[in-house]
Amino acid sequence: MKRFLAAAAALTLLTACGSSDGDDAAEAGQPTTVRVGFSAWPGWFPWQVAQEQGLFAKNGVTVELKYFDSYTDSLTALSTGNLDANSQTLNDTLSSVSGGAKQTVVLVNDNSTGNDQIIARPGIDSVADLKGKTVAVEQGTVDHYLLLLALQKAGLSEQDVTVKALLTDAAAAAFLAGQVDAVGAFAPFTTTALGLAGSKAIATSADFPGAIPDHLVFEADFVKDHPKEVQAMVDTWFDTLAWIKDNPAAAVGIMAKKGGVSDADYKSYDAGTTIFTREQNLAAFESGQTPANLDFQAKSIAKFLVDAKLVDEEPPLDGLLDATFVKAAT
Fold first, then answer.
1. What is the pLDDT of residue 67?
2. Quick one: signal sequence residues (predicted)?
3. Contact 218, 84 (CB under 8 A)
4. Does 17 reside within a domain?
């Protein structure tokens, strides 16, 4: 993970210094296309609805929406300047920031309330039973973080298990094939993993309320240079939630198709992903001392990343959270 972050920081510098092509970046204040990434997670599939229903255009913003089969690739794309914004978790944002990336959270898409899971084969009934076992997980990302939280709560550490580093889709497939004892995965890949007869979730994000918030994260300079486009993206999000509320069957059909699952499977994810309204966004951005407050979570996650040796030092938090656009949303 440290090598990845160092490489990402170096590539960011190369991207910034190595191009003089006027097409590579629009001038500050001038209209520009927003390159936005998202990947397979129930809290981010609404972006597909926004695209198919013309809601970006309704809000006067031109968007190049990019879907990533690999969540890690989307993180890399934002850190290396190949995206202007990405849908990603708070802890993965902090990991990138610790490597030198300048990123700003402008919107809470959702909180994971069960759709991130540690799933184990039959005979493993608790996290404590993982001692000496092999767990497949996408290293350095949110479900690795969930695994570490669960191990810590059970009185264990990462040294008590063997971590097999695989992309999340490959990790779920390896577990289904019986190649590992447990897997850390997020929906919709949890559906794949739970296809193993007798398997079950032994820890989920519901056990750690507020620990896994998901966001729309921009490259920090883009926010300063193109606030109108950022505002339009935030406005589009809330318009999309309204459209989904008014057209639930059609919305599920769009999102399930993008996720490669049935409508029924997609509906089963509802309780495990709590989509945030504007009011919930405003509350989350308020400074406070509870897991519901983003600044509290950011400090907690930053410390955990260092303690778990995922990063060398706590990332700077100045400029990380910007509630301006949520406050201005209608």
1. 98
2. 1-22
3. yes
4. no
**Strand 134-137's sheet: what is its strand order?**
162-165, 134-137, 182-186, 116-120, 200-204
The answer to whether residue 12 is domain-embedded is no
247-277 tens-digit pLDDT: 999 999 999 999 999 999 999 999 999 999 9
Q: How far apart are the first and last CA of the chain?
A: 39
- In this structure, the answer to whether residues 174 and 321 fall within a common structural domain is no
264 C-beta neighbours (distance < 10 Å), count = 9
Report the CATH number at residue 152: 3.40.190.10
Domain that holds residue 281: 32-111+212-328
Q: Are 212 and 205 in contact (CB under 8 A)?
A: yes
80: number of Cβ within 10 Å? 18
How many domains does the chain contain in total? 2
Residue type, 203: A
From 207, 226, 242, the end of a domain falls on 207
- Asked if residue 201 is part of any domain, the answer here is yes
